[in-house]
Protein backbone atom coordinates (compact mmCIF):
# COMPACT_ATOMS: atom_id res chain seq x y z
CA UNK A 1 0.00 0.00 0.00
CA UNK A 2 1.14 3.54 -0.66
CA UNK A 3 1.26 6.44 1.75
CA UNK A 4 -2.46 7.40 1.63
CA UNK A 5 -4.17 5.28 4.30
CA UNK A 6 -7.76 4.80 5.40
CA UNK A 7 -8.00 6.66 8.77
CA UNK A 8 -8.49 4.95 12.14
CA UNK A 9 -10.92 5.77 14.96
CA UNK A 10 -9.42 8.35 17.29
CA UNK A 11 -9.14 6.49 20.63
CA UNK A 12 -6.71 7.11 23.50
CA UNK A 13 -3.61 4.90 23.57
CA UNK A 14 -4.10 1.68 25.56
CA UNK A 15 -7.92 1.53 25.77
CA UNK A 16 -9.04 -1.89 26.96
CA UNK A 17 -10.75 -4.73 25.13
CA UNK A 18 -14.31 -3.99 26.25
CA UNK A 19 -13.94 -0.46 24.90
CA UNK A 20 -12.43 -1.66 21.62
CA UNK A 21 -15.33 -4.13 21.29
CA UNK A 22 -17.80 -1.25 21.03
CA UNK A 23 -15.64 1.43 19.34
CA UNK A 24 -12.83 0.07 17.13
CA UNK A 25 -13.46 0.47 13.40
CA UNK A 26 -13.52 3.56 11.20
CA UNK A 27 -14.24 7.21 12.05
CA UNK A 28 -17.92 8.11 11.48
CA UNK A 29 -18.93 9.51 8.09
CA UNK A 30 -19.57 13.23 7.48
CA UNK A 31 -23.01 12.79 9.11
CA UNK A 32 -21.57 11.89 12.54
CA UNK A 33 -23.55 8.68 13.12
CA UNK A 34 -23.00 7.06 16.54
CA UNK A 35 -23.99 3.54 15.49
CA UNK A 36 -21.82 2.27 12.63
CA UNK A 37 -23.18 2.82 9.12
CA UNK A 38 -24.09 -0.02 6.80
CA UNK A 39 -22.43 0.72 3.46
CA UNK A 40 -24.68 -1.32 1.20
CA UNK A 41 -22.93 -0.51 -2.05
CA UNK A 42 -21.13 -2.74 -4.51
CA UNK A 43 -18.68 -0.10 -5.70
CA UNK A 44 -17.26 3.32 -4.79
CA UNK A 45 -17.08 6.43 -6.94
CA UNK A 46 -13.51 7.55 -7.60
CA UNK A 47 -12.60 11.28 -7.72
CA UNK A 48 -10.87 11.01 -11.12
CA UNK A 49 -9.26 8.50 -13.47
CA UNK A 50 -5.74 9.00 -12.09
CA UNK A 51 -6.92 8.34 -8.50
CA UNK A 52 -8.79 5.26 -9.69
CA UNK A 53 -5.61 3.98 -11.37
CA UNK A 54 -3.54 4.60 -8.19
CA UNK A 55 -6.13 2.88 -6.03
CA UNK A 56 -6.48 -0.16 -8.29
CA UNK A 57 -2.69 -0.47 -8.35
CA UNK A 58 -2.61 -0.48 -4.50
CA UNK A 59 -0.59 2.74 -4.45
CA UNK A 60 -3.29 4.41 -2.39
CA UNK A 61 -5.53 2.78 0.24
CA UNK A 62 -9.20 3.46 -0.54
CA UNK A 63 -12.53 1.75 -1.00
CA UNK A 64 -12.95 0.47 -4.53
CA UNK A 65 -15.27 -2.50 -4.91
CA UNK A 66 -17.00 -4.51 -2.19
CA UNK A 67 -15.53 -7.87 -3.27
CA UNK A 68 -12.35 -6.77 -1.48
CA UNK A 69 -12.89 -3.33 0.12
CA UNK A 70 -15.95 -2.06 1.96
CA UNK A 71 -16.09 0.28 5.01
CA UNK A 72 -18.54 -1.84 7.03
CA UNK A 73 -16.43 -4.94 6.38
CA UNK A 74 -13.27 -3.00 7.34
CA UNK A 75 -14.90 -1.95 10.62
CA UNK A 76 -15.63 -5.60 11.45
CA UNK A 77 -12.08 -6.65 10.45
CA UNK A 78 -10.44 -3.96 12.59
CA UNK A 79 -12.63 -4.64 15.61
CA UNK A 80 -12.11 -8.42 15.46
CA UNK A 81 -8.35 -8.00 14.98
CA UNK A 82 -8.22 -5.72 18.03
CA UNK A 83 -10.05 -8.29 20.16
CA UNK A 84 -7.76 -11.11 18.98
CA UNK A 85 -4.63 -9.03 19.57
CA UNK A 86 -3.80 -9.41 15.86
CA UNK A 87 -2.36 -6.78 13.53
CA UNK A 88 -5.14 -7.34 11.04
CA UNK A 89 -7.91 -9.57 9.79
CA UNK A 90 -9.70 -10.43 6.57
CA UNK A 91 -13.41 -11.19 6.61
CA UNK A 92 -14.95 -14.01 4.58
CA UNK A 93 -18.44 -15.14 3.62
CA UNK A 94 -18.38 -18.10 6.08
CA UNK A 95 -16.12 -19.92 8.51
CA UNK A 96 -15.48 -22.57 5.86
CA UNK A 97 -14.50 -19.97 3.28
CA UNK A 98 -11.99 -18.59 5.82
CA UNK A 99 -10.37 -22.05 5.83
CA UNK A 100 -10.61 -22.18 2.02
CA UNK A 101 -8.88 -18.77 1.82
CA UNK A 102 -6.27 -19.99 4.31
CA UNK A 103 -5.45 -22.96 2.08
CA UNK A 104 -5.54 -21.01 -1.18
CA UNK A 105 -3.29 -18.32 0.29
CA UNK A 106 -0.68 -20.55 1.89
CA UNK A 107 -0.55 -23.83 -0.05
CA UNK A 108 0.33 -25.17 -3.48
CA UNK A 109 0.43 -28.66 -5.01
CA UNK A 110 3.02 -30.83 -3.24
CA UNK A 111 2.57 -29.13 0.15
CA UNK A 112 1.65 -30.98 3.33
CA UNK A 113 -0.71 -30.07 6.18
CA UNK A 114 -0.98 -31.52 9.69
CA UNK A 115 -4.46 -31.26 11.19
CA UNK A 116 -6.12 -32.45 14.37
CA UNK A 117 -8.42 -35.41 13.65
CA UNK A 118 -11.05 -33.91 16.00
CA UNK A 119 -11.81 -30.70 14.09
CA UNK A 120 -15.21 -29.76 12.64
CA UNK A 121 -16.42 -32.34 10.07
CA UNK A 122 -16.46 -29.94 7.09
CA UNK A 123 -12.86 -28.92 7.87
CA UNK A 124 -11.83 -32.58 7.65
CA UNK A 125 -13.68 -32.85 4.31
CA UNK A 126 -12.17 -29.62 2.93
CA UNK A 127 -8.59 -30.54 3.81
CA UNK A 128 -8.80 -34.31 3.36
CA UNK A 129 -10.88 -34.43 0.17
CA UNK A 130 -11.12 -31.07 -1.62
CA UNK A 131 -7.52 -29.86 -1.10
CA UNK A 132 -6.27 -33.39 -1.90
CA UNK A 133 -7.70 -32.92 -5.43
CA UNK A 134 -5.17 -30.10 -5.91
CA UNK A 135 -2.19 -32.12 -4.66
CA UNK A 136 -2.16 -30.98 -1.02
CA UNK A 137 -1.77 -33.89 1.38
CA UNK A 138 -3.08 -33.78 4.97
CA UNK A 139 -2.04 -35.98 7.89
CA UNK A 140 -4.65 -36.14 10.67
CA UNK A 141 -3.27 -36.58 14.18
CA UNK A 142 -4.51 -36.69 17.77
CA UNK A 143 -5.65 -33.28 19.03
CA UNK A 144 -3.89 -33.73 22.37
CA UNK A 145 -0.76 -35.82 21.67
CA UNK A 146 1.94 -33.30 20.72
CA UNK A 147 4.37 -36.14 19.88
CA UNK A 148 2.07 -37.19 17.01
CA UNK A 149 2.19 -33.65 15.55
CA UNK A 150 5.96 -33.61 15.86
CA UNK A 151 6.45 -36.97 14.17
CA UNK A 152 4.03 -36.04 11.33
CA UNK A 153 6.28 -33.14 10.23
CA UNK A 154 7.73 -33.53 6.71
CA UNK A 155 10.11 -31.36 4.69
CA UNK A 156 7.08 -30.02 2.76
CA UNK A 157 4.86 -29.28 5.81
CA UNK A 158 3.52 -25.73 5.44
CA UNK A 159 0.51 -25.58 7.75
CA UNK A 160 -0.56 -26.95 11.15
CA UNK A 161 -4.30 -26.62 11.81
CA UNK A 162 -6.06 -27.06 15.15
CA UNK A 163 -9.36 -26.06 16.71
CA UNK A 164 -9.63 -25.64 20.48
CA UNK A 165 -11.80 -26.76 22.14
CA UNK A 166 -12.99 -29.10 19.40
CA UNK A 167 -16.49 -29.56 18.11
CA UNK A 168 -18.18 -31.52 19.75
CA UNK A 169 -15.76 -33.33 22.10
CA UNK A 170 -14.29 -30.16 23.61
CA UNK A 171 -10.75 -31.56 23.40
CA UNK A 172 -8.23 -28.84 24.21
CA UNK A 173 -4.87 -28.60 22.42
CA UNK A 174 -1.76 -27.00 23.89
CA UNK A 175 -1.43 -24.02 21.52
CA UNK A 176 2.02 -23.07 22.83
CA UNK A 177 3.37 -26.60 22.26
CA UNK A 178 1.91 -26.75 18.73
CA UNK A 179 3.39 -23.35 17.95
CA UNK A 180 6.83 -24.72 18.84
CA UNK A 181 6.29 -27.69 16.51
CA UNK A 182 5.21 -25.28 13.73
CA UNK A 183 8.21 -23.01 14.24
CA UNK A 184 10.58 -26.00 14.16
CA UNK A 185 8.98 -27.11 10.88
CA UNK A 186 9.07 -23.62 9.34
CA UNK A 187 5.27 -23.90 9.04
CA UNK A 188 2.34 -21.68 10.01
CA UNK A 189 0.04 -22.58 12.94
CA UNK A 190 -3.63 -21.68 12.41
CA UNK A 191 -6.09 -22.12 15.27
CA UNK A 192 -9.87 -22.14 14.81
CA UNK A 193 -11.06 -20.07 17.80
CA UNK A 194 -14.75 -20.56 17.10
CA UNK A 195 -15.67 -22.21 20.43
CA UNK A 196 -13.97 -19.71 22.75
CA UNK A 197 -13.94 -16.49 20.74
CA UNK A 198 -11.43 -13.80 21.73
CA UNK A 199 -13.55 -13.11 24.82
CA UNK A 200 -12.08 -16.29 26.39
CA UNK A 201 -9.01 -17.24 24.36
CA UNK A 202 -6.52 -15.30 22.24
CA UNK A 203 -4.44 -17.93 20.41
CA UNK A 204 -1.87 -15.37 19.16
CA UNK A 205 -0.78 -14.83 22.79
CA UNK A 206 0.15 -18.53 22.86
CA UNK A 207 2.14 -18.43 19.63
CA UNK A 208 -0.49 -19.13 16.93
CA UNK A 209 0.30 -17.32 13.68
CA UNK A 210 -3.27 -17.13 12.42
CA UNK A 211 -6.70 -17.33 14.03
CA UNK A 212 -9.70 -18.66 12.11
CA UNK A 213 -13.29 -17.69 12.88
CA UNK A 214 -16.74 -18.81 12.01
CA UNK A 215 -18.44 -15.47 12.70
CA UNK A 216 -21.69 -17.41 12.40
CA UNK A 217 -21.20 -18.60 15.97
CA UNK A 218 -20.41 -16.44 19.02
CA UNK A 219 -19.26 -13.35 17.11
CA UNK A 220 -22.76 -12.80 15.75
CA UNK A 221 -24.12 -14.57 18.81
CA UNK A 222 -27.75 -14.51 17.78
CA UNK A 223 -27.85 -17.02 14.93
CA UNK A 224 -28.58 -14.47 12.21
CA UNK A 225 -25.85 -14.58 9.57
CA UNK A 226 -23.07 -16.73 8.12
CA UNK A 227 -19.64 -15.10 8.36
CA UNK A 228 -15.95 -15.87 8.82
CA UNK A 229 -12.50 -14.33 9.17
CA UNK A 230 -8.76 -14.93 9.36
CA UNK A 231 -6.78 -12.82 11.86
CA UNK A 232 -3.00 -12.45 11.83
CA UNK A 233 0.01 -10.35 10.76
CA UNK A 234 -0.71 -7.53 8.26
CA UNK A 235 2.07 -8.72 5.94
CA UNK A 236 0.67 -12.24 5.63
CA UNK A 237 -2.85 -10.89 5.14
CA UNK A 238 -1.84 -8.34 2.50
CA UNK A 239 0.53 -10.62 0.61
CA UNK A 240 -1.19 -14.01 0.85
CA UNK A 241 -4.90 -13.49 1.45
CA UNK A 242 -5.99 -10.13 -0.03
CA UNK A 243 -4.88 -11.09 -3.58
CA UNK A 244 -6.79 -14.40 -3.33
CA UNK A 245 -9.87 -12.60 -2.01
CA UNK A 246 -9.65 -10.19 -4.96
CA UNK A 247 -9.43 -13.05 -7.48
CA UNK A 248 -11.64 -15.64 -5.82
CA UNK A 249 -14.24 -13.44 -4.08
CA UNK A 250 -15.26 -15.33 -0.93
CA UNK A 251 -16.18 -11.90 0.47
CA UNK A 252 -18.36 -11.11 3.46
CA UNK A 253 -21.39 -9.06 2.45
CA UNK A 254 -21.59 -5.57 4.03
CA UNK A 255 -24.93 -6.44 5.60
CA UNK A 256 -23.58 -9.58 7.27
CA UNK A 257 -20.46 -7.66 8.34
CA UNK A 258 -22.66 -5.05 10.01
CA UNK A 259 -24.61 -7.71 11.92
CA UNK A 260 -21.42 -9.42 13.17
CA UNK A 261 -19.78 -6.07 13.95
CA UNK A 262 -22.67 -5.19 16.24
CA UNK A 263 -22.54 -8.72 17.70
CA UNK A 264 -18.96 -8.12 18.84
CA UNK A 265 -20.22 -5.34 21.13
CA UNK A 266 -21.93 -7.84 23.45
CA UNK A 267 -19.51 -10.75 22.93
CA UNK A 268 -17.71 -10.67 26.28
CA UNK A 269 -20.84 -10.39 28.43
CA UNK A 270 -22.62 -13.11 26.43
CA UNK A 271 -19.63 -15.44 26.68
CA UNK A 272 -19.35 -14.87 30.42
CA UNK A 273 -23.01 -15.62 31.19
CA UNK A 274 -23.36 -18.50 28.69
CA UNK A 275 -20.19 -20.12 30.07
CA UNK A 276 -21.44 -19.83 33.67
CA UNK A 277 -24.70 -21.51 32.63
CA UNK A 278 -22.82 -24.22 30.70
CA UNK A 279 -20.75 -25.05 33.78
CA UNK A 280 -23.92 -25.37 35.89
CA UNK A 281 -25.51 -27.63 33.26
CA UNK A 282 -22.36 -29.78 32.89
CA UNK A 283 -22.14 -30.32 36.67
CA UNK A 284 -25.83 -31.31 36.77
CA UNK A 285 -25.47 -33.71 33.82
CA UNK A 286 -22.49 -35.38 35.50
CA UNK A 287 -24.76 -36.30 38.43
CA UNK A 288 -27.47 -37.92 36.27
CA UNK A 289 -27.47 -41.77 36.31
CA UNK A 290 -28.59 -41.96 32.63
CA UNK A 291 -25.50 -40.00 31.52
CA UNK A 292 -22.38 -42.08 30.85
CA UNK A 293 -19.93 -39.22 30.37
CA UNK A 294 -19.85 -35.43 30.15
CA UNK A 295 -17.34 -33.51 28.03
CA UNK A 296 -16.82 -29.97 29.30
CA UNK A 297 -13.42 -28.32 29.85
CA UNK A 298 -14.70 -26.47 32.93
CA UNK A 299 -15.22 -29.73 34.85
CA UNK A 300 -12.36 -31.15 36.93
CA UNK A 301 -13.07 -34.53 35.25
CA UNK A 302 -12.11 -33.16 31.79
CA UNK A 303 -8.72 -34.61 30.71
CA UNK A 304 -7.31 -31.17 29.79
CA UNK A 305 -9.07 -29.22 32.55
CA UNK A 306 -5.91 -27.51 33.87
CA UNK A 307 -4.70 -26.56 30.37
CA UNK A 308 -8.16 -25.25 29.43
CA UNK A 309 -8.37 -23.10 32.55
CA UNK A 310 -4.95 -21.58 31.80
CA UNK A 311 -5.58 -21.04 28.07
CA UNK A 312 -9.27 -20.01 28.22
CA UNK A 313 -9.32 -17.29 30.89
CA UNK A 314 -10.48 -19.76 33.56
CA UNK A 315 -13.62 -20.65 31.60
CA UNK A 316 -14.87 -23.85 29.97
CA UNK A 317 -16.84 -22.07 27.25
CA UNK A 318 -20.52 -22.59 26.49
CA UNK A 319 -20.62 -25.99 24.74
CA UNK A 320 -21.32 -29.17 26.71
CA UNK A 321 -21.37 -32.62 25.13
CA UNK A 322 -22.49 -35.81 26.84
CA UNK A 323 -23.12 -39.48 26.14
CA UNK A 324 -26.36 -41.13 27.17
CA UNK A 325 -25.91 -44.54 28.77
CA UNK A 326 -26.83 -47.67 26.77
CA UNK A 327 -26.05 -51.34 27.37
CA UNK A 328 -26.30 -54.58 25.43
CA UNK A 329 -25.05 -56.22 22.25
CA UNK A 330 -26.54 -53.55 19.95
CA UNK A 331 -25.11 -50.75 22.10
CA UNK A 332 -24.49 -48.29 19.23
CA UNK A 333 -28.05 -48.58 17.85
CA UNK A 334 -29.54 -48.36 21.34
CA UNK A 335 -27.36 -45.35 22.22
CA UNK A 336 -28.58 -43.59 19.05
CA UNK A 337 -32.23 -44.31 19.98
CA UNK A 338 -31.61 -42.95 23.50
CA UNK A 339 -29.92 -39.81 22.17
CA UNK A 340 -32.77 -39.20 19.70
CA UNK A 341 -35.30 -39.70 22.55
CA UNK A 342 -33.57 -37.09 24.75
CA UNK A 343 -33.34 -34.62 21.86
CA UNK A 344 -36.95 -35.18 20.79
CA UNK A 345 -38.21 -34.73 24.37
CA UNK A 346 -36.95 -31.13 24.58
CA UNK A 347 -39.41 -28.25 24.26
CA UNK A 348 -37.15 -25.28 24.98
CA UNK A 349 -33.85 -26.18 23.24
CA UNK A 350 -33.72 -25.63 19.47
CA UNK A 351 -32.91 -28.83 17.57
CA UNK A 352 -30.37 -27.37 15.17
CA UNK A 353 -26.72 -27.93 14.31
CA UNK A 354 -25.72 -24.30 14.86
CA UNK A 355 -24.05 -23.16 18.07
CA UNK A 356 -23.12 -19.84 19.63
CA UNK A 357 -26.71 -18.55 19.69
CA UNK A 358 -28.47 -16.88 22.63
CA UNK A 359 -31.04 -19.68 22.18
CA UNK A 360 -29.72 -23.00 23.54
CA UNK A 361 -29.24 -25.48 20.71
CA UNK A 362 -29.12 -29.27 20.84
CA UNK A 363 -27.78 -31.66 18.23
CA UNK A 364 -26.72 -35.25 17.54
CA UNK A 365 -23.24 -34.77 16.01
CA UNK A 366 -22.89 -38.32 14.59
CA UNK A 367 -25.86 -37.81 12.24
CA UNK A 368 -25.58 -34.05 11.58
CA UNK A 369 -22.36 -31.99 11.78
CA UNK A 370 -20.20 -35.12 11.46
CA UNK A 371 -22.68 -37.20 9.42
CA UNK A 372 -20.60 -37.03 6.21
CA UNK A 373 -17.57 -38.68 7.83
CA UNK A 374 -16.95 -42.42 7.56
CA UNK A 375 -17.61 -44.45 10.74
CA UNK A 376 -13.81 -44.85 11.05
CA UNK A 377 -13.19 -41.06 10.87
CA UNK A 378 -16.03 -40.46 13.33
CA UNK A 379 -14.68 -42.93 15.86
CA UNK A 380 -11.15 -41.49 15.46
CA UNK A 381 -12.71 -38.16 16.37
CA UNK A 382 -14.40 -39.85 19.38
CA UNK A 383 -17.96 -39.19 18.18
CA UNK A 384 -20.25 -42.05 19.12
CA UNK A 385 -23.98 -42.59 18.47
CA UNK A 386 -24.94 -41.77 22.07
CA UNK A 387 -23.39 -38.31 22.01
CA UNK A 388 -25.47 -35.14 22.32
CA UNK A 389 -24.06 -31.61 22.03
CA UNK A 390 -25.72 -28.72 23.84
CA UNK A 391 -24.59 -25.17 23.05
CA UNK A 392 -25.86 -23.26 26.06
CA UNK A 393 -27.45 -19.90 25.31
CA UNK A 394 -29.06 -17.29 27.54
CA UNK A 395 -32.10 -19.42 28.46
CA UNK A 396 -32.50 -19.91 32.23
CA UNK A 397 -30.33 -22.93 33.00
CA UNK A 398 -33.05 -24.46 35.21
CA UNK A 399 -35.29 -24.61 32.13
CA UNK A 400 -32.54 -26.36 30.16
CA UNK A 401 -32.00 -28.90 32.95
CA UNK A 402 -35.76 -29.60 33.05
CA UNK A 403 -35.79 -29.89 29.23
CA UNK A 404 -33.06 -32.56 29.24
CA UNK A 405 -34.44 -34.29 32.33
CA UNK A 406 -37.74 -34.90 30.52
CA UNK A 407 -36.00 -37.29 28.10
CA UNK A 408 -33.37 -38.69 30.48
CA UNK A 409 -35.86 -39.85 33.10
CA UNK A 410 -38.04 -41.63 30.52
CA UNK A 411 -35.25 -43.68 28.89
C1 LIG B 1 -15.30 -25.06 14.82
C2 LIG B 1 -15.95 -24.65 13.55
N1 LIG B 1 -15.20 -24.11 12.58
C3 LIG B 1 -15.75 -23.73 11.41
C4 LIG B 1 -17.10 -23.87 11.17
C5 LIG B 1 -17.65 -23.44 9.85
O1 LIG B 1 -18.27 -22.21 9.95
P1 LIG B 1 -19.42 -21.70 8.95
O2 LIG B 1 -20.63 -22.54 9.23
O3 LIG B 1 -19.56 -20.27 9.28
O4 LIG B 1 -18.91 -21.93 7.57
C6 LIG B 1 -17.91 -24.42 12.16
C7 LIG B 1 -19.37 -24.58 11.91
O5 LIG B 1 -20.07 -25.19 12.68
C8 LIG B 1 -17.33 -24.82 13.38
O6 LIG B 1 -18.07 -25.37 14.37
Secondary structure: elements and pairs:
Blueprint: H1 17-23, H2 49-56, H3 71-84, E1 88-92, H4 95-106, E2 112-116, H5 121-133, E3 137-141, H6 146-152, E4 157-163, H7 175-185, E5 188-192, H8 197-200, E6 210-214, E7 228-232, H9 234-248, H10 254-264, H11 267-286, E8 291-295, H12 305-311, E9 319-324, H13 331-344, E10 350-351, E11 361-363, H14 375-380, E12 387-391, H15 397-408
Parallel strand pairs: 2-3, 2-4, 4-5, 5-6, 10-11
Antiparallel strand pairs: 1-7, 6-7, 8-9, 9-12, 11-12
Helix pairs in contact: 1-3, 3-10, 4-5, 4-9, 11-15, 13-15
The structure holds pyridoxal-5'-phosphate (PLP).
What's the helix count?
15
Flag low-confidence runs.
Answer: none
N-to-C span: 63 Å
Biggest sheet strand line-up: 1-7-6-5-4-2-3
The main β sheet shows up as: 7 strands, mixed
Helices and strands, in order, run as HHHEHEHEHEHEHEEHHHEHEHEEHEH
Structural class: alpha/beta
- DSSP helix fraction: 25-40%
Give the CA-based shape. globular
Bound molecules: pyridoxal-5'-phosphate
CA-atom Rg in angstroms: 22 Å
Q: Tell me the total number of β-strands.
A: 12
Mean pLDDT: 96
Estimate the strand proportion: 5-15%
Amino acid sequence: MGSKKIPRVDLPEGVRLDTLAVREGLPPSAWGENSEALFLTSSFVQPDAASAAARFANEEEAFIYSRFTNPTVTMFERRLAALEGAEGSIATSSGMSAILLLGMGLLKAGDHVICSQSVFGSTIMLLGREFAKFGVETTFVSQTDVAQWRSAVQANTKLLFAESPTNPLTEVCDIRALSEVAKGAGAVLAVDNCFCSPALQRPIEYGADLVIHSGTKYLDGQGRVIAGAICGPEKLINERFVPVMRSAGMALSPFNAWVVLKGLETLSIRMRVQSERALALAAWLEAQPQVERVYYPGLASHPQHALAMAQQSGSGGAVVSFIVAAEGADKAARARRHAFHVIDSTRVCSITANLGDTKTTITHPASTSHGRLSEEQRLAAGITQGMIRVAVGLDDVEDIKADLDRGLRTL
